[in-house]
Amino acid sequence: MDKKFYVPNIKLDKIDRHILSLLHENSRISYTDIGKEIGISRVAVQTRVNTLFENGIIEKFTTVINPAKVGKTVSAFFNVDVEPQYLESVANTLADDPAVTSLYHMTGPSKLHMHGIFIDNQEMESFLTNKLYAIKGVVSVDCQILIKRYKSRIGMKL
């Protein structure tokens, strides 16, 4: 089996799941507070969190910024059809752009699905015409502007 694609089947017990749930709700919660909630020591919590991190169950700890609070008011989703031989280079170019918040290789007629945030419609239009359409291998782009967000996946709940 190719180790690059091997994902070990890691068993999470009730305590691991409870720790993950608490961290998902508040990633700034202290190990001491988690220990008090669950009934184990701070050291035991730290050991379990480190193990979850080392095994790739916790990918990273990060800060989620509200785009509107920093002047990014336009949120848009793009389906980008790419010539197959340019898929990797287009994906790498888009992944490096700060306006692109997520990028996925999808099945179906569109090869790449991405999300971007922009200050206004003019910035989004500039991104489309000066960046996205200018990338070699991009065949077509379908753009949809977000009207209202009801739920966003930030991490995964167990």
Automatic annotation (TrEMBL):
Residue runs in coiled coils: none
Keywords carried by this UniProt record: DNA-binding, Transcription, Transcription regulation
Superkingdom per UniProt: Bacteria
SUPFAM superfamilies: Dimeric alpha+beta barrel (SSF54909), Winged helix' DNA-binding domain (SSF46785)
This protein's name: Lrp/AsnC family transcriptional regulator
Gene Ontology molecular-function annotations: sequence-specific DNA binding
CDD domains per UniProt: HTH_ARSR (cd00090)
Occurrences of domain HTH asnC-type (ranges): 12-73
Cellular component annotations (GO), alphabetically ordered: cytosol
Gene3D superfamilies linked to this entry: 3.30.70.920, Winged helix-like DNA-binding domain superfamily/Winged helix DNA-binding domain (1.10.10.10)
GO term, biological process aspect, one: response to amino acid
